[in-house]
What does this fold into?
Amino acid sequence: MGFISETQKIRSKIAKYLNGKVADIGCGHDPVIPDAFGIDCRPFPHVKHITRNLNKISEELGELAGAFDVVYSSHCLEHFHDDIGALSDWVRMAKDGGYIILYLPDDRFYRNDLNPDHVQRYEHESFVESFLPKISGATLVESGPDVGDDRYSFYVVLKKSSN
It folds into this structure.
């Protein structure tokens, strides 16, 4: 069995949300849908916007801020020192009523020595109960663990509030 991307692991659980214009932050080699607007710091084949600072991506994209039906990110937020600022910015990228979908490593199941670039550590329940209330403009739609054979993550689906 070959390499399975993190996005491939969660894709079927979130497929019902992946409609319209989709931004994939940190898409790497595997965008969440084939025609996603791929955003990354490296020039992978599916990347449509190369950024130096994913934390302020809505400023770089200018008129595209507020233009996406879905903003998706897999195993990316944990790399930011200012994770609240990054997620707040990503919420601004979504249209009113749009979705923000995160797939994150759960510290209880993830071997952190696998990626020394992680500056944040999350656990599903505390992320939902303590972290998400710090993010304004979005409400929780659903979340759940995704653990088991080569799975050590959780997902969160937020819906951007109408202004």
Remarks:
- The mean pLDDT is 89.
